[in-house]
Amino acid sequence: MRPLWLCWALWALPLAGPGAALTEERVLGRLLRQLRLSEAPVLDEADVERLVIPAHVRAQYVALLQRSHGARSRGKRFSQNFREVAGRFLVSEVSSHLLVFHMEQRLPPHSELVQAVLRLFQEPVPKAALRSHERLFPRSDRARVTVQWLHVRDDGSNRTSLIDSRLVSVHESGWKALDVTDAVNFWQQLRRPRQPLLLQVSVQREHLGPLASSAHRLVRFASQGPSGAGQREPQLELHTLDLRDYGAQGNCDPKAPVTEGTRCCRREVYIDLQGMKWAENWVLEPPGFLAYECVGTCQQPPEPLTFKWPFLGPRQCIASETTSLPMIVSIPEGGKPRTQVVSLPNMRVQKCSCASDGAPVPRKLKP
Question: Which intervals hold domain TGF-beta family profile (predicted)?
Answer without folding.
Answer: 241-355
